[in-house]
């Protein structure tokens, strides 16, 4: 089985939309306009490709996005810098393969050289114990709860500290280079036809 985590491609947005809206009640529905908005604006938007088929995706945004999600705004009001995981979806035939942990490891690798905190939420109404346990064992802790406006459902707001960021910040972002090294795995995804510079992507 060949598994690849890579940036989403424009022609795959319809597949992402279909996966999202078939995921169940713990994933908020999307329409084509919102999927396009994520494609144009998300800092992290990657898919899992298994033997040539899209098996899932993860979307995440840093704290400077023009995004109206109440959970995202909760973190933006309290944290100066973070990467917020908006959603992760794994298609049913591919669940149980560990793709969730692979995605979270990849998102952590992206985040820890840019921000000090990885953030997300899980539904408590209905309670998603699989997700609660997954995040707890991956190092997240609850930093708050809220009732989502318009939905009336309670969510647990979770954060994970990324201690590696202090080293990266002091050695590179605030060091003689003033930016991250020019390496392929550190390059930002293309958005709106261009890549964010390493300096800007680093928040420095």
From TrEMBL:
A matching Pfam family: Acetyltransf_1
EC number: 2.3.1.-
Keywords, in A-Z order: Acyltransferase, Transferase
Sequence ranges assigned to domain N-acetyltransferase in this UniProt record: 3-163
Classification via SUPFAM superfamilies: Acyl-CoA N-acyltransferases (Nat) (SSF55729)
A molecular function GO annotation: acyltransferase activity
Signal sequence, start to end: none
Matching InterPro entries: Acyl_CoA_acyltransferase, GNAT_dom
Protein's name in the database: GNAT family N-acetyltransferase
Classification lineage: Bacteria, Pseudomonadati, Pseudomonadota, Gammaproteobacteria, Lysobacterales
């Amino acid at each position: 089985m060949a598994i690849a985590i890579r940036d989403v491609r424009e022609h795959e947005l319809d597949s992402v939309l279909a996966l999202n809206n078939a995921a169940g009640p713990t994933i908020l529905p999307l329409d084509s306009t919102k999927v396009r908005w994520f494609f144009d604006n998300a800092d992290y938007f990657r898919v899992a490709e298994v033997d040539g088929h899209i098996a899932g995706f993860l979307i995440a945004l840093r704290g400077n996005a023009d995004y109206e999600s109440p959970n995202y705004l909760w973190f933006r009001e309290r944290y100066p810098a973070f990467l917020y995981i908006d959603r992760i979806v794994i298609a049913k035939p591919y669940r149980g393969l560990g793709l969730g942990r692979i995605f979270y490891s990849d998102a952590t690798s992206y985040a820890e050289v840019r921000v000090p905190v990885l953030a997300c939420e899980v539904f408590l109404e209905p309670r998603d114990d699989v997700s609660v346990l997954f995040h707890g064992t991956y190092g997240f802790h609850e930093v708050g709860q809220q009732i989502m406006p318009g939905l009336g459902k309670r969510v647990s707001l979770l954060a994970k500290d990324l201690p590696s960021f202090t080293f990266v910040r002091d050695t590179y972002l605030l060091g003689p280079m003033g930016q991250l090294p020019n390496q392929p795995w550190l390059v930002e995804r293309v958005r709106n036809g261009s890549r964010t510079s390493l300096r800007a992507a680093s928040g420095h």
